[in-house]
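In response to the reviewer comment on reproducibility (Comment 2.3), we provide here a single inverse folding case reported in full, input and output, so that an independent group could reproduce the run without further information from us. The structure tokens appear first.
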């Protein structure tokens, strides 16, 4: 009977866990819809802004794309690692941490690597092995373009002042609820802009000058790039958590069913033993 009581307690405990995982799955599904709407609404603007910069920059003579395109010897590297503040989302955070460690120990092993963490989970782990210069985990409490732009402006200023020679963003790019792609994206210096016959032949009327337009658009494009990366990560987090909680609920259901079967077998065996004892006692009295 003690064994039966233990199994009943486990079944009850698993039932409570299933309620929690099911609720977390539904919450993540609702947040995922909002996050994907944000990305869908922003992508056309981001793509059009990039197209304009490419077209205008293609018509400039020489290197007029400003201080943000200066390519220097890579001695100091800044990595912006975007994770989450909460766990229970599968390998979402561990994949980012692994990629940051690969960049620090292999890709930029001969450089001085500093890290800005966006997310408590990444900060807790990476702070043990790497130099964390800033922790922006509170960004998720009021996530919008304006607060993200403050981080971008500080990073851009550090690059202009030659504090860093290269800036990389590591984040999970949202593909669908079940798939997140770990992306290492160069933030600074600006990548060379590819030109072709169509972009070179674009005919624009500029007011003010091309150079002034570029000087305005490039900082805006960089701020948009960082905001898009973090928004992608937010959507990926909710997708990863929804998938993880769905799998956890399925596993809990399977385990509960197995325990119920074990409980029924044990209960049947206990009843059979009691019947045998009664029959044996009756036979003993008759004899």
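Designed residues, in position order:
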């Amino acid at each position: 009977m003690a064994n039966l009581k233990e199994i009943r307690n486990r079944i009850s405990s698993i039932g409570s866990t299933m309620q929690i995982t099911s609720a977390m799955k539904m919450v993540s599904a609702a947040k995922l819809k909002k996050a994907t709407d944000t990305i869908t609404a922003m992508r056309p603007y981001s793509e059009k802004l990039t197209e304009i910069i490419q077209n205008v920059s293609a018509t400039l003579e020489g290197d007029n794309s400003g201080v943000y395109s200066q390519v220097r010897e890579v001695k100091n590297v800044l990595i912006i690692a975007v994770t989450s503040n909460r766990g229970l989302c599968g390998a979402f955070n561990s994949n980012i941490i692994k990629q940051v460690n690969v960049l620090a120990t292999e890709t930029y092993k001969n450089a001085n690597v500093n890290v800005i963490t966006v997310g408590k989970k990444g900060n807790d782990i990476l702070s043990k092995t790497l130099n964390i210069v800033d922790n922006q985990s509170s960004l998720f409490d009021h996530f919008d373009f304006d607060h993200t732009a403050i981080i971008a402006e500080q990073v851009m200023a550090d690059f202009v002042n030659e504090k860093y020679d290269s800036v990389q963003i590591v984040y999970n790019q949202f593909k669908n609820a079940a798939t997140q792609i770990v992306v290492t994206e160069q933030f600074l210096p600006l990548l060379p802009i590819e030109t072709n016959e169509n972009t070179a032949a674009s005919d624009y009327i500029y007011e003010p000058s091309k150079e002034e337009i570029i000087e305005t658009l490039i900082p805006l494009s960089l701020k948009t790039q960082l905001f898009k990366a973090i928004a992608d990560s937010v959507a990926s987090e909710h997708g990863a958590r929804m998938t993880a909680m769905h799998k956890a609920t399925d596993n809990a259901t399977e385990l509960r069913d197995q325990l119920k079967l074990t409980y029924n077998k044990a209960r049947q065996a206990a009843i059979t033993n009691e019947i045998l004892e009664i029959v044996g006692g009756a036979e003993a009295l008759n004899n």
